[in-house]
């Protein structure tokens, strides 16, 4: 069964990468193949936290998509778009830097998927006003979201899994992850002109038109905006304090969406207009295929074999986890990879020398998985969401267009993370 599960995943991944067939159709077909054989049972698909569909991700996305749909009716996205364009004096590069910084900081405080859902409409409106291609801006933002999300416990789903298994606190993530995230973010911003050449030319007449706009006139429904602001404040507070409240972020998002639907009194067609149904189905299919790899032991065998090559050397083990986590997370999605690796890292941390910082392996896993999410178009949930938004907005981004840029960002990020781990935990202790 393990060979069949691997074959189905590899074939499906090839079709997704080729981008000739709708990726949602490919994912659902692959999921059907592993179910019909059967490689994985319905109980494993619908009820298992280890191998099943991650309903927290699905319903978090659904709830936030509904909230964004309602918020869009207020005109606030156009307001922010005009405001940011005017503050940047109409310069596309300065606009990209501003949006990248906002995205990175917001991703650390919330999570990268929620941030992408909120920042994408603003980006599309800015680019529409300036009549420039939005694709480079959307890619830069999703790269920034995966980088910024690595800084905190709540910023990226893999961090939540690692914190739960290793007993790491919110403050621990800030102390150990935020410094390298800040360094990587600065280098990433410096890379933008070379990463997206030719994307910063704009018609001076369009800039003049934007500078003449009054952003306050973009607000269409101030009362609804106030209601949305209150609900969003509650949702964000719920995200930050979800552990203390014993509520998953998905439940918080659905509650917020439900409240907005009731108080806005909008028609169903309006608040469901922004839901990316294809994206949600793609995630479901991908989770089933990856679940089959987990259930058959394919991922565990790969991860364990890679770490055993280090022969018990603490530095090699740390660098091995970092080096393996980045490419594997980028290929199969970092959430199931981290879920599979955590018991292996927990075992390794008890067998290595006592002079190793007790949490060094966990930080290597977090950095590899979080930064590795930028490697391909399916490496992180935020990537899939952003590509779905881009396609619907008429700015499609192909798998390879994203991956060509993602490889560069990931290689640079890991190249910076490796000396950071070495210096912090092996040189200075």
From TrEMBL:
Domain Citrate transporter-like residue range list: 14-368
Transmembrane segments: 27-46, 58-83, 95-120, 173-192, 224-245, 280-303, 360-385, 406-423
Record flagged with keyword Thylakoid: no
Pfam families found in the cross-reference section: CitMHS
Transport is among the record's keywords: yes
Membrane topology: Multi-pass membrane protein
Entry protein name: Citrate transporter-like domain-containing protein
Organism encoding this protein: Mycolicibacter sinensis (strain JDM601)
